[in-house]
Amino acid sequence: MKPTFFLRSVLATALLFAAPAFATEKPDAALSRWVKAVQTANVDNIMKFYDDNAIMVSTFADAPMVGRSAIVDYYKLVVVNPDIKVEVTDSHSRTFGNVAVITGLYTLSYTEEGEPVVIHSRFSFVYVLEGGKWLIVDHHASRVPSEATGKTLVDRLW
Question: pTM for the full model?
């Protein structure tokens, strides 16, 4: 007996929403591993966490970087700074089937020309579950606004 269209649809929907249960890691673990990879200063290690067609919008770039080669070029410039470190200070993870979003704050620090540099940033990562791994398809990071102005939005409004 052939499965009906309805039965096939129900099974396909169940598999779509069950996909995260088959993941080998949670999205939060993927973020932690990305942090460790950045701290290795090895671009190949970092790029293991990105989809080939990922897009990145960074604090240090004027335009979005689209695709693997643009993101590789970006990281080659970033990781030349000694003592690079990322510390996630706040994160909020949400999973929607085979898509996950993690939003929060991190501090990026490194040494430039012998001087310590500390940048407080906010971030959003969008992950897609592919082959049991969460891969970044969209990465946005920007400097916390109060760091540049010394005031928060609430301070400026009042």
Answer: 0.78
Q: Residue 20, class by beta-carbon neighbours within 10 Å (0-12 exposed, 13-18 middle, 19+ buried)?
A: middle
66: helix, strand or coil: strand
pLDDT 10s digits, 82-139: 899 999 999 999 999 999 999 999 999 999 999 999 999 999 999 999 999 999 999 9
Tokens of 119: 């940048």
Q: The CATH number of the domain where 28 resides is what?
A: 3.10.450.50
| Cα torsion angle, 73, 103, 36, 99, sign | negative
In a domain, 6, yes or no: no
Domain-embedded: residue 141 = yes
Residue 134 CB neighbour total at 10 angstroms? 29
Residue 99 CB-density burial (10 A; 0-12 exposed, 13-18 middle, 19+ buried): middle
